[in-house]
Design goal:
- Mean pLDDT is 76; it is low at 1-24, 121-164 and 602-631.
- The strands form 12 sheets. This protein has a 6-stranded antiparallel β-sheet. Strands 7-6-3-4-8 form a 5-stranded mixed β-sheet. Strands 21, 22, 23, 24 and 25 form a 5-stranded antiparallel β-sheet that branches.
- It is built from 9 helices and 47 strands.
- It is globular and about 80 Å long.
- The protein has 631 residues and is mostly beta strands.
- Among the domains are: 2-145, Sandwich (Immunoglobulin-like), CATH 2.60.40; 164-285, Tricorn protease N-terminal domain (Neuraminidase); 483-619, Alpha-Beta Complex (endopeptidase fold (from Nostoc punctiforme)), CATH 3.90.1720.10.
């Protein structure tokens, strides 16, 4: 009798939630331009009268499964500050919640919108990296909510200093200089894994360099200025070097130059000599050919005792999109005649990176061009980037290590190889981890992440590839190989274009988990209807090493099937379609394409498979909560 009462109560609550959700919809008041990610305040309007409902069943907005706001009435307006969210994809959902629970408990998902965010370079975010505002009561009047002044809490957050980030710079084949997210400057030995603290930074570190004898770092001092520090490992004194001019932290780089360091930025560049304590404009030390050349993509320097070179990288004037690299060499104290190299790249954004050893990497959204500046004549090699989508980001860092090009794109790491398939490393195994910088380290790279230093390729796969999931783009496991894989591919193809419908699992309309449940059911594998249940479902396994065709990606409020070549099949933009995997956070990879899953076997405590209770055909039937039913 007690069980029946619980069932009746749950059914009544679900009916009340469905009644409240009959005509409620979530929509953008300010939709983003096609292909442009959100970078400001996202205004969401909840419209239509939800009809009769209990007072405790209220509409609420969730971002990535976390409560953003509970609406006291509809219509209502909700604001989400996208500048405070991590770059990547975020699922904004409208749900009916039970406000009697603390915190309010989601009962019914009504509608969903998938958006991408990209923080501006000058965006100010809090040290806690809070991506969501606290749940708040929403004024039911959109006009009054739009005109209301920001709260004191919001005003205080806008004035907080930027988030500290991780940085790394190469020192030798075994050692790197690093700044961790806590603001500590470290010398890290990759061989022993030991880190030696050098100093504590006076703020968020924006650039690092090693000149052969001392460590240099630049600390942000407000949105328009930086402070420069240096220290020798054997010294106990940290020196601050007055720059004499305001250099903004955005796009800042440090490169060793003439027994000191060059502070490079678009707003101006200076050379700092610690011996003479002099600071002078860098242009005074450069030849005329470099000063007059296009250089909006930066000036890149290489210095040694015997020779030096400097390269200016910029767009050629005119309607074309080509980039010109102007290189000048200095030998025996004299500048030689400069040489110009023209690189053809598509129109759009571009960036340039150098490794301090004479290799320059020019990046655009589709490819990287590697130029060896130490050779005469100059030689280049073009490497294509993996396929992306409308939110594909320009690489934020790139180096050459072990003959491969490694670059950082949207918090993930790409390894581009001339004679082998490209590889992507996605930071999915460590909650909250995000790659922020990288430096060459022997035949691989050292990655500075929000969870500490990580090395790739990794020798220890205890938590995957140093906390990353590897994707062999076009390599083994990235395409249908078995009959079961091919059956999955054919089944997914038949679902392309099916419209989105919350709670649906048919070709008349389906939501994200309903689509996956129906596809896998056609293969004889029964999965639950719900992304939260997929994350912890006992069937199958959790993947931490290599992503394979047919794996299911589950993250807060959404799920997708990996279809190879960096693309997924999922409900997106109102229908079942394809989307690139880049930029997603909080992902758990589940593998259900196994012989045990087809037979409906669950892992046993002893390690061997066990079959669910009942006949094999009935054992795979699930109740609405996603649990095996028992007859």
């Amino acid at each position: 009798m007690l069980r029946l009462r619980h069932v009746a109560c749950a059914a009544a609550m679900m009916l009340a939630a469905r009644s409240a959700a009959q005509s409620t919809r979530l929509c953008f008041e300010n939709p983003p331009a096609p292909g442009a990610p959100q970078s400001g305040i996202v205004v969401l309007s909840i419209s239509a009268d939800p009809g009769r409902r209990p007072g405790w069943a209220r509409p609420a907005v969730l971002v990535d499964g976390r409560l953003l706001a509970v609406c006291q009435a509809v219509p209502a307006t909700v604001r989400w500050d996208a500048t405070r969210a991590e770059d990547g994809e975020h699922l904004i959902a409208l749900a009916i919640v039970d406000t009697r629970a603390v915190p309010p408990r989601e009962m019914l998902r009504v509608d969903e919108i998938l958006v991408t965010t990209r923080r501006p370079a000058t965006a100010q975010v809090s040290r806690t990296s809070a991506a969501l505002q606290r749940p708040e009561r929403i004024d039911p009047s959109p006009a009054r909510a739009a005109s209301s002044p920001p709260s004191r809490d919001t005003q205080a957050r806008r004035g907080t200093p930027p988030e500290a980030t991780a940085r790394v710079a190469a020192v030798s084949e075994r050692r790197v200089l690093a700044a961790d997210p806590r603001g500590m400057i470290l010398l890290h030995d990759a061989g022993s894994g030991a880190s030696t603290p050098l100093a504590e930074a006076a703020g968020p570190v924006r650039a690092l360099a090693w000149d052969g004898r001392r460590a240099w770092w630049a600390v942000e001092d407000g949105p328009r200025a930086v402070r420069l520090f240096s220290r020798m490992p054997q010294s106990e004194l940290t020196e601050e070097h007055a720059l004499g001019t305001s250099i903004p932290p955005s796009g800042l780089r440090l490169q060793p130059w003439q027994r000191g360091v060059a502070v490079l930025s678009q707003a101006g560049s200076v050379h700092v000599d610690p011996a003479s304590r002099s600071v002078r404009p860098l242009d005074e030390a450069l030849p005329d050919a470099i000063r007059l050349a296009p250089r909006e993509l930066g000036v890149h320097l290489v210095w040694s005792e015997n020779q030096a070179l400097v390269a200016a990288v910029g767009r050629l004037p005119g309607a074309g999109a080509d980039v010109q690299v102007t290189v000048a060499w200095r030998r025996h104290g004299e500048w030689q005649e400069a040489e110009a190299l023209r690189i053809a790249i598509p129109a759009g954004q571009a960036a340039a990176f150098s490794d301090g050893l004479g290799r320059l990497i020019v990046a655009c959204a589709e490819a990287l061009v590697v130029a060896d500046l130490t050779c005469e004549p100059l030689r280049t090699e073009r490497v294509l980037l993996p396929p992306g989508d409308s939110r594909a980001q320009l690489p934020s860092a790139a180096v050459v290590a072990g003959g491969d090009v490694w670059c950082l794109c949207g918090g993930s790491v790409l390894r581009l190889r001339s004679n082998a398939p490209a590889e992507a490393y996605l930071p999915w195994n460590v909650p909250g981890m995000r790659a922020q910088d990288l430096a060459a380290q022997g035949s691989g790279v050292m990655i500075a992440t929000t969870a500490g230093l990580r090395r790739l390729p990794a020798g220890d796969l205890a938590e995957g590839h140093s906390g990353f999931v590897r994707v062999r783009l076009g390599g083994p496991g990235d395409a249908p190989e078995t009959p079961l894989d091919q059956q999955l591919a054919a089944e997914v193809a038949g679902w392309m274009g099916v419209p989105y419908k919350w709670g649906g699992a048919t070709k008349e309309g389906a939501d994200c988990s309903g689509f996956i449940m129906a596809v896998y059911r056609a293969l004889g594998i029964e999965l639950p209807h719900g992304s939260a249940q997929l994350r912890t479902f006992p069937l199958g396994s959790i993947v931490k090493d290599d992503l394979r065709f047919g794996d299911v990606l589950v993250y807060p409020g959404h799920c997708a099937i990996y279809m190879g070549n960096g693309m997924t099949a999922e409900t997106v933009s109102g229908r079942v379609g394809q989307r690139a995997i880049w930029g997603r956070t909080g992902v758990v990879v589940r593998r259900f394409l196994t012989s045990q899953a087809v037979r409906g076997e669950l892992p046993s405590r002893s390690g061997g498979p066990r079959t669910r209770r009942g006949a094999s055909s009935d054992a795979r039937r699930l109740d609405p909560a996603g649990h095996p039913s028992v007859r």
